[in-house]
Amino acid sequence: MTMSTAESAAEPPLADSYLELLRRDGGIAPAAADADRRGAVPVQERELPLIDLSCLASGRASEARACADAMARAASEWGFFQVTGHGVSRALLERLRAEQVRLFRLAFETKAKAGLLNGSYRWGAPTATSLRHLSWSEAFHIPLASISGASGSDFGELGSLRVVMQEVAEAMSRVAKTVAVSLAGSLLQQGHQAAAFPAGCDETTCFLRLNRYPACPFGAETFGLVPHTDSDFLTVLCQDQVGGLQLMKDSRWVAVKPHPDALIVNIGDLFQAWSNNRYKSVEHKVVANAKAERFSAAYFLCPSYDSLVGTCGEPSPYTDFTFGEYRRKVQEDVKRTGRKIGLPNFLKQQHHITPPPLPLL
User: Fold this and answer.
1) Cross-referenced Pfam families, in alphabetical order (predicted)?
2) Single pTM value for the model
């Protein structure tokens, strides 16, 4: 199917980047190289643990405790789970999807303008030196402070997008806070401490990311988003039914089966550190689809840059660090090695740290 002129003008230059990197890599895509080394290994599709958040407010202590225990178990065993009864209406998420489609249909030059949405547009990986570092996607990674207009962000004719993003951010913030407080409470003895968790997080410090993964005509295992862990406390994700999200479980990639009424929650690096490794920040990726584009939106629960991450109790395996220190170290390592190292940098007892190997596909 041939793209219209308008559709072609909207697309970021992902194909050009892919072909240039393929030439640099000797004409062999990462998936093909991995298959040659170990043979094709089918990725199993699994349903994540499914938890009804409304049970926390049911007024029945046994139901609330069972819900909290289920979340803590999933955070420990999977690092990911799905939630229903979250209070984010399907109508609101459909409005967001319509606004995302309109946003990403803008011409590439318009999206890439520094003024649009506070210069939050990202595409692929323009600095990538290998296909292993290329993400077949585009996104707006938006600080919540800019959605309120306090930073002078330019929404142009996208005023309706601002309204919907504010509603979505508020709704997802409630979900993130509910889940975070419950998970913290499972590790703390005093309830008032859990209610204040996580410290330093408010509507000015978190982020909303709008993602689009175009249909990809190249290899079936092209990364829509390269393997990574999230550098936050936790992430709340809404996605369409196209699929493509995969996570590492028992040293194997597992494909996440979409659930039409659920939001996905995953643990970030900061929560793993705070929990003394009881909760797991799990590596995950998105695999591009050959025929269909995919949309998703993620809310990242982040503290201010000067906030200490802290611990649920001593002894902690990690040194004290702030979110700003963590982010700076991640950026330095990616620039130096092409890979995020993350939490191992802050272990009290360290051996020589090298970037973790890329997992086999």
Assistant:
1) 2OG-FeII_Oxy, DIOX_N
2) 0.91
